[in-house]
Amino acid sequence: MNRLGSIQENDVPTRMLGYEGIDPDTCTFYRRALTTLLESGVAFLVGGAYGMAYYTGIARHTKDLDIFVLPQDYERVLDVLCAAGYPTEKTFPSWLGKALQGTDNIDVIFSSGNGIARVDETWFAPVIEAELFDMTLRICPAEEIIWSKATIMGHERYDGADIAHLLHACGAHLDWNRLLKRFDSHWEVLLSHLILFGYIYPTERSQIPDWVMQQLLDALRHEMARPPRPERICRGTLLSWDQYRVDVEQRGYHDARLVPWGLMTASDIEHFTAVLTGAKRTRPRSPLPRPFGRLRWSRRA
User: Fold this and answer.
1) Average pLDDT of the residues in 93-110
2) Any idea what DSSP says for residue 168?
3) Which pLDDT band, with edges at 50, 70 and 90, does 144 fall under?
4) Chain centroid, CA 145 distance in Å
5) Backbone dihedral region of 258: left (phi > 0), alpha (psi from -120 to 50 degrees) or beta?
6) In terms of DSSP bridges, do strands 96-101 and 104-109 run parallel, antiparallel, or are they unpaired?
7) What is the reported pTM?
8) Average pLDDT, the chain
9) Beta pairing, strands 45-46 & 96-101
10) Residue 172 and residue 29 share a domain
């Protein structure tokens, strides 16, 4: 059976995307920093806007480059980039740091803001490669991009359109068993995106296998037949860090991000909230997206 990571070039049309829209200094920063990481031998994957462009052909320029690393490599990556002359910061010690040059930055990510989508060895299999910034770089699997984006439903950012575009481009080739395993107890979030996909693209519903929808709908019927859970838990905080604060701070609900329901500590959440609350007050208006560069497809199992 075909695996997304082993799609042959004749299975999907090659998409040629340019990065001429990026400032030359930004390109130089990315190229030098990534070359340094490649020479260090530390494993990393490119995701974010560049991962989206690889799979969907939709190009957008942002002022950062997202790379995903194993949790145990997080400190090393920041050290390597710092030694190369780039200031670094542990913006969110529970999931994200940055290497900086002027207004550009490289986000070094080992988990998600809510603690769910933690990077593990499975992210690095299969090998998916693209030519980017004149070098061969490994790209995040589409399943993991979907998983990491699926719970981003905040007031300031909603990644539902990215999920729909990934399903549109890759649905026929996804490893659906892998994706279902990733979502695990958060299967309702996946189901919500699949239902929305059918609404957005009613002529493309065949991208989602019938057995996947049946399995998730069976799980929904089973869940509806269960008695109410004894503990008052709000899982809305997994979707939006600020829109459900009232529920955990004033209405007596447990925060699903916290141990034992989640993977974050109270200090993680306190720091996360403080940083983003400050960012909301000071965030400048973002520039309009600009198209970027050339990605050349190359995949091997």
Assistant:
1) 96
2) H
3) very high
4) 4
5) beta
6) antiparallel
7) 0.86
8) 88
9) unpaired
10) yes
Q: Tokens representing 57?
A: 């052909």
Strand order of the β-sheet with 128-132 is 135-138, 128-132, 296-299
Q: Report if residue 197 sits inside a domain.
A: yes
Average pLDDT over residues 253-274: 95
Q: Helix, strand, or coil here: 145?
A: helix
Cα 266-94-27 angle, rounded to 5 deg: 150
Tell me: do 191 and 246 sit in the same domain. Answer: no
Looking at residue 258, the DSSP 8-state letter turns out to be B
Are residues 193 and 156 part of one domain? yes
Rounded to 5 degrees, φ, ψ at 234 are: -110, 115
Question: Is it the case that residue 75 has pLDDT exceeding 60?
Answer: yes
- The DSSP-derived string for 177-237 is HHHHHHHGGGHHHHHHHHHHHHHH-GGGGGGS-HHHHHHHHHHHHHHHHSPPPSS-EEGGG
Residue 280's pLDDT is what?
59
Contact, 166 vs 52, CB < 8 A?
yes
Amino acid at position 272, single letter:
F
Tell me the HSE value of 212 on the side-chain side, using a 13 A CA sphere. Answer: 24
CATH value at residue 90: 3.30.460.40
**pLDDT tens-place string over residues 193-236:** 999 999 999 999 999 999 999 999 999 999 999 998 889 999 99
Rounded Cα distance between 193 and 28, Å, is: 37
Tokens of 28: 């130089």
Instruction: Show Cβ contacts of residue 165 under 8 Å, excluding neighbours closer than 6 positions.
Output: 52, 56, 58
The total of structural domains in the chain comes to 2
What DSSP character marks residue 158? B
Give 137's strand partners.
Answer: 130
